[in-house]
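ok posting inputs for the PRP job
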Amino acid sequence: MSAEPIPGIERILFTGEQIDARIREVAAEISRSYAGRTLTLIGVLKGSVFFLTALARYIEVPVKIDFLAISSFSNKSGSPGVVRIAKDLDESIEGEDVLLVEDIVDTGFTLRYLLQTLAGRAPNSLSVCTFLDRNSRRIVQVPVDFCCFEIPDRFVVGFGLDCNQLYRNLSYVAVMKPEKA
Ligand code: PRP
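and the output
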């Protein structure tokens, strides 16, 4: 692969092959954890779509999928971390074994809100799987049960992650040059 596949990209962090291999490992962990059960994967639009579909193909227990979308913004006093559901789930999760699937966890505000909201709907269990964890940006502590990669505090794109809605479809994860991020 060339050093600069598309303008604005500094370097490739994870190749498509590395991502596929790691997703297989995490899917195997998940399959062991949920052996004998049916798993409901909930994807958080839009970023998690690529990861969720790749992950689901390697999970060896029966899987249902559903999606929600969130909006996050600052409140009147300028504090970040205000989150609301912009598109809710299609199905009830009461009594289901739910795995919330994220593309990235940064501050943790989104995940904290989603876990509180979904826990109120009485699932049998509720866990979290993220493709990327940028732990250095965490502001609120949230549980992450399954994670593919920890990443440095850099702006990354690809495999679902965007820059102004572009680059989600890259098969790899890349670090953007600072001036583009
Ligand atoms: C990303 C990601 C998480 C959230 C994590 O979504 O999918 O939902 O940010 O950030 P936090 O830990 O700081 O709350 P984004 O708002 O970029 O939307 P997208 O998935 O549509 O790109």
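notes: The mean pLDDT is 93. Helices lie at 16-33, 49-58, 109-119.
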